[in-house]
Amino acid sequence: MDNYRLFEYISQLNTANTYNQIKQVCTTFCQHLGFDYFIYGSRIPTSLVNPSYIVLSGYPEEWRNHYVEQEYLLIDPTVSHCMEHITPVLWEQFTKTTCKHDKTINKLFYEADDYGLCNGISYPIHSIHGEAAMFSLTTSLANKKSRAHIQSTFAVGQLFASYVHEAMKRIPDNSLLAKTNFYLTKREKECLLWTTEGKTSWEVSQILSISERTVVFHINNAIKKLNVSNKQHAVARAISLGHITPQF
Amino acid sequence: MDNYRLFEYISQLNTANTYNQIKQVCTTFCQHLGFDYFIYGSRIPTSLVNPSYIVLSGYPEEWRNHYVEQEYLLIDPTVSHCMEHITPVLWEQFTKTTCKHDKTINKLFYEADDYGLCNGISYPIHSIHGEAAMFSLTTSLANKKSRAHIQSTFAVGQLFASYVHEAMKRIPDNSLLAKTNFYLTKREKECLLWTTEGKTSWEVSQILSISERTVVFHINNAIKKLNVSNKQHAVARAISLGHITPQF
DNA sequence: CTCATACCTGTCATATGTGACAGCTTATAA
DNA sequence: TTATAAGCTGTCACATATGACAGGTATGAG
Questions:
Q1: Burial code of A190-202, b = ≥16 C-beta within 10 A, e = fewer?
Q2: What residues of chain B lie within 8 A of the CB of A11, using their CB?
Q3: Residue A103 in contact with residue B182, Cβ under 8 Å?
Q4: pTM value?
Q5: What's the whole-number mean pLDDT along residues A161-184?
Q6: A146, A137 in Cβ contact below 8 A?
Q7: Residue of A4, A8, A42, A87 for testing the chain B interface, max B β-carbons within 10 Å
Q8: Residue B125 · residue B161 · CB < 8 Å
């Protein structure tokens, strides 16, 4: 893919305002590169136990349904690769070697084959605050035929995936907005920050040169705003939502 | 850059075992693309207040020293871009428009010019657990001359940066090893996980069908292993170090 | 069999957190 | 002026956490 076309796609993603517009750009990009299907999925750690998901699927609906029913997300090796790494992974890497003995994973790939997803490449996307996502491009061509083709899209695909993710984050999402539509004051953030370092309210009061009662006051306000039940919860949520970030 | 050469570089990074080997690959890559200098910097949130840093510098040492002395890290717009975004940024974007009025930032870019860093591109790298890094390539050519050149390396540079980061993570680092060289048991992780959700020890005991005392026992063990002082600290540290991760 | 480890449970004293009571100053915008 | 928000402080009662005491079972490795 020449640079001009790549920047054209990036520009389209940067101006997209709805999920459908982004989906349209992905579809065109996917076809342009000679792939059959694409999918984008993002996991937002609003909670460690119940994270939020956003999916933009260009997959056959029947395969998606089957995948969800079978809970393949839990065993899909491309997913676990993308959770642990930041470099792309070729699907054939799994069908060939590593998983030869794992029947459930082999079943997954054989069934994908039946739906026309024979080979593909998955790009991990990692963003601030532990946000994890992935973007996959698939082809119905057999491994040997598609290998060179896929490898030639290695770099552009990763870059494109990043812009898709940024575009997705820009779209206002009602289901997530309510959880993040507030702000913590400077003091509230300061008190929480030192709390993540294991400081007690009294210790924080000494650091900030205010009374212990005031620290408690700020932390309680933060707990109410974050809609959580105690300090541990507040610490986890404030980090996840990006209200407190590492200092330089 | 053709695919063969790109995969050659990736392969070299995948087999590198020391910082110097990685640095050598970066130097070659940098020169191959026609750039003058490169730098890789990573911030590991072992603590939110005092994060750990790892730098692989191919910059002129004088400029590095000056940069550190002046604490430019705190105002460098390429750094803040890379902390907030996952897409590359061209340096000329700042020297031209946004920062026209900001004297300190202009000073930074003018001084960089003097050291031969006239234009460049910075790639953000975000990894699991909020780990943030960046990889920059710079040239002594003026903006107009270097623009097309830089844009043509947009995609490969991002991919290369990802592999550099993975390689850096693979190198055993004594300064960090001590902080992560232990493991939490299944129960310890479970107890911490529910603690991040704001559950009290008693509530966790109900969820796991064990006594409250046992939950306290596991959490205390985790606190000792993590070398932290209380639950809040343990929650923050366990998330940062990746001992507990979002469930599916 | 012994050792190490994970896992489990109890009591007690003290420290800290949490929620509700009540009230203050300062700055800024309507 | 009034209203609003941020920041600040105090006391009391009760809940929960923390640390130290002491003890148990089950499992696998050597």
A1: bbbbbbbbbbbbe
A2: none
A3: no
A4: 0.91
A5: 81
A6: no
A7: A87
A8: yes
